[in-house]
Amino acid sequence: MPSGPRGGDALDAALDDRDALGYVFIGRGPDPTLRYLTGRGFDTTVVYVRVAGESHLRVPSTIETPEVPGVAVRIDDKPAGKAAAAVLGSEATSGTVLVPQTIPHDAALHLESAGYDLASTPVLDNACAVKDDDERAAIETVQRAARRGIARAAEILADATVDNATTTDDDADATDDDTAHTADDDGTLVWDGAPLSTERIRRQVNVALAIEGVDAAGATTVDVGGRERSGETTPEDDASAVVLRADDPVVVSVAPRGRDGYRGALARTFVVDADGGWERRAHVACDAARDVALVEAGPGADAAFVGSEIRAETAAFGFSPSEEVARDVGGGIGLSLCESPPLDGDTELSAGNVIRVRTAVSDPENGRIELVDVMAIDDDGPVFLGDPPTSLDPAAWSQ
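Above: the chain sequence. Below: its structure as tokens.
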């Protein structure tokens, strides 16, 4: 599993290439880039400086001085820009300093007033985009947990029964379910003695993720695919909780975080009793577009072309590319859900990239069908991590 700081070699190469004195990063709280640079998370703003082949960290006195392997850590309560300038000043009082585009304005002003010329660089974005073996293993571990979380939702939906009888509010209150409605619509799903709601599934999925030792990260969602519904929500408890029907396309999405901070991403759409109409066609389109990613992605492939092919394949099944096909088709994933390379930018894929691949079709009357996977780019081509089932039938997950 990942341990210790990363990115030092990439920073040194960038500094040599630009004839720069050093690199400065200001991390605020649990910043993914700061975790990449130091191998750990923080609850406050800290200053990272790379100069003369060495990493320096300046932290406020409000926290206990951390021990970071290979990093010189000291207490410094000066403003971040001044703390960084003090480290740089041990080498030179002027020169070019590389910084990310997101450097805080006040820190930039302090560095410039100290005599340094700032130049932005994407070096860390590029470095984070290529995962080493430990990072890849960490993402695979989280992705296995994500699969078990989705499997729990599939199990519940497969076990649910259809109840067309009326359930009173008093009966529903007795179930400890926070979606106490009148279940008198045809096709209402019942599980464990009560109407099955999106919120009940979400809680069960999060329990499964916790058992796997990962943090749900507040990213677990369960909805009816965007289909417009009325009279079935619970505004006093959770306006998003909806009682499900057998013909609902239920989109279950998770993006858990592992112990080392690395993320996974997985989404599946289930229909307990599909009628073979819109949702079937939309699912075939999304599944086909997912397969296109396996064909087009690979070392040397143009990332934007892969993204456009995913959208084009989805639209080929008769869906409007401007209104129904999702624009977000994914991009890099690691310590953050959104990293390089994006699948809509001028970037070339390379071995070591790990990418979130999303295919989705939405319609205001019929709902949404969505599939999300994590793909790793290997030397010999792409592969979906875990490669879980894509079927609309939740029972397929138990086969």
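Residues 166-185, 230-237 have pLDDT under 50 and may be disordered.
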